[in-house]
Amino acid sequence: MLQACLNGSRTAEEHPALPLSPERLAEDAADVAALGVTSVHLHPRDVIGAQTLAGPEIATTIATVRAAVPGIEIGVSTNVPGNRARLIGSWGPLAAGRPDIASVHLSDPAWRELTEALHRVNVAVELVVADLADLRELPEGINRITVRATRDSAEDLLAQVEPLGLPVLLHGRDADAWPVFTYAARLEHHVRMGLEDTLHKPDGTRARNNAELVACARRNQRAKAPN
Length: 227
What we know:
Blueprint (H helix, E strand, L loop, with lengths): L1 E4 L16 H12 L5 E4 L12 H14 L4 E5 L6 H6 L11 E5 L5 H10 L3 E6 L12 E7 L5 H8 L6 E4 L5 H11 L3 E3 L16 H15 L3
Parallel strand pairs: 1-2, 1-8, 2-3, 3-4, 4-5, 5-6, 6-7
């Protein structure tokens, strides 16, 4: 799987093409889907541009993106301020405005509560692991492990999560984004790329937008595919 991470916690000041509104996220989702992306990860915003999990904003964002790319997996992050379990609880009746999957950080003290809240509204759980931790007693219902790694930590983190037998998405950020992507592609793990992870192409030049980053990622994947 190639996932596109469209915006993350970045601000408009960091890149002029960063998609923040539902309409811009839908446009970028359509562009990357045309390049072979089957999953998009995004951080919905409220009217003042702050990250949110509130039902109305989630519903508008997800429904707008889903209309542009029907059938693609749409995921959101729970790593935002507020009473997240209560906000997630408001997603139950959203229908087309409910995400397919949501990421929960293992380092978050409330990660078990958030996981349970997502299960109650029938949203899949993507557990984010960035450091070595005790994973022997994970609850049932974790759908995927996302490993956020550096080029130095990737091997050790994978050695910990691979025995769990769950799908693994491996990615890095900023200076580590492309080295970790290349490593993950060679191992044939799920991968992701987009403006959340880096603003630059592999050659160090600034990317125009998410589509240009994903096009580079597709070429990288093909180059690393087994013959």
